[in-house]
Amino acid sequence: MALSVFNARRPVKRSQRLRAACALGSAGLFVALHGGAQPSREPEVTRFQFRAPEGCGSADDFAARVAKRSARIKLSADGGGARALSVEIDSPDAAGVVRGRVTVVEPDGATRARQLKAPTCDEALDGLSLIATVTLDPEAFMGEPVPPPDEPTPVPKPAPATPKAPRKPMTLPVRGEPLPLYRLGFGLSGAVLLRVAPEPAFGAQAAVLLELNPGHVLSPAWRLSVSHTRLGGVARGPGEANFAYTLPTIEACPVRLGPKAFGIRPCGFVTTGALSVWGSGVLEEEEHLRFFGAAGPALLFQVRLSKGIEIIADGRAGFAFKRDDFAFDSVPFFTTPALGFSSALGLAGGFP
Q1: pTM above 0.85, yes or no
Q2: pLDDT at position 207, please?
Q3: Which structural domain range is residue 309 located in?
Q4: Which of 93, 226, 297, 316 places its Cα 20 to 30 Å from the Cα of 132?
Q5: Using one digit for the tens of pLDDT, what is the confidence trace for 282-304?
Q6: Does residue 70 contact residue 140 with C-beta atoms inside 8 Å?
Q7: Is residue 148 one of the residues assigned to a domain?
Q8: What is the DSSP secondary structure assignment for residue 344, as one 8-state letter?
Q9: Judgement on whether residues 202 and 313 belong to the same structural domain of the protein
């Protein structure tokens, strides 16, 4: 038969008055039925086993509570006795309820078992000791009422839920939202000239790009760049030749091909600038400033790293407007080729 103790949250004074009233009523009934006190008998030894989680009472504590209620019960954990008492207390469940069981095995093998549930270990221990006392010694009414059977432990009512603040609706971009009308970018790159001087000439390039209607294939762009490259110490004949190119370049790119993250622009370019050439290691060192110009097709590559940063690279193939011959003491050592190449690689940023 399932039993439960009173919820620990009931006022202490009310519980004490209820227990006292039950005790007085039980004592009156006992006196009326038996006509007075029965003669005392020797304590009966009962074999005793106790199991409970750590911190939830002990065998000695349980035995002391039983002995306080009845002097006619003697619990022995060392064996002996015709009857056996087993007490088990489980760990509190998720709701904090503690369940316990009392099992008594009589000498003839008859078994009586009772169980209860309580809000705390101490109340479970106290209720189980009361059940064990009444089961082993029905005449032992010491003012403690037997816990009523099957009384469910009251479940606390959940606090009223606090109304949640209305969630702010997520703002999604409108499909087909108009893109900017233009984009302005700035870049810095390393540059190299090939087949323009006797050997490759290395330097740097700065550029600004204006792009109209970005994000579409038909997205014309204009790019203005200035590069400066040098080649020095070229041993030719009796001396060494040195070259320095300063070349402003303008490119026109009518379309952009490829996805947003990677684009290719076919372009046409024109470059006109100055070539400074001088000799060293000879008796008469001369320096000449020459015009240099070229035009032809180009490709511009753009790799988008973020909204404002991208990798840029370009390659150009230019036909020289003018071809020069270079010589030491009238001995030619280099003639400007008809077709030359240039390339650059760097980073660019822009807005919007």
Answers
A1: no
A2: 96
A3: 182-351
A4: 93
A5: 666 778 898 999 999 999 999 98
A6: yes
A7: no
A8: E
A9: yes
Residues 132 and 186 in one domain: no
Whether 154 is in a domain gets the answer: no
Q: Is residue 163 part of a domain?
A: no
pLDDT digits (tens, 9 = 90+) for 138-184: 877 655 454 544 455 555 666 666 666 666 655 554 455 567 899 89
Q: Which residues contact 147 (CB under 8 A, 6 or more apart)?
A: 3, 4, 5, 6, 116, 127, 130, 131
Which of the 8 DSSP states describes residue 11? -
Domain identity same for 92 and 234: no
E-state strands within the chain: 44-51, 73-76, 83-89, 98-105, 111-118, 182-194, 201-212, 221-236, 239-253, 262-280, 287-304, 309-320, 325-328, 331-335, 339-351
Coil, helix or strand at residue 90? coil
**One domain for residues 57 and 119:** yes
- Domain end marker among 136, 167, 199: 136
Helix axes 121-136, 59-69, angle to 10 degrees: 50
User: How many domains does the chain divide into?
Assistant: 2
Q: What is the per-residue DSSP string for 101-158?
A: EEEEE-TTS-EEEEEEEESSHHHHHHHHHHHHHHHH-TT---S-PPPPBTPPPPPPPP
Q: 344 or 7: whose pLDDT is higher?
A: 344
SS3 per residue for 294-318: EEEEEEEEEEECCCCEEEEEEEEEE
Across-strand partners of 273? 292
Query: If DSSP codes are grouped into helix, strand and coil, which group holds residue 165?
Result: coil
CATH number of the domain to which 46 belongs: 3.40.50
Q: 262 pLDDT exceeds 60?
A: yes
User: Are 196 and 334 contained in the same domain?
Assistant: yes
Q: What is the mean pLDDT of residues 212-227?
A: 92
Q: Is residue 328 part of a domain?
A: yes
| pLDDT value for 153 | 52
CATH number of the domain enclosing 346: 2.40.160.20
Give the Cα separation of 189 and 203 in Å (integer).
Answer: 9
Position 276 pLDDT exceeds 60: yes
Phi and psi dihedrals of 28, rounded to 5?
-65, -40
Task: Please give the pLDDT value at position 101.
Answer: 92
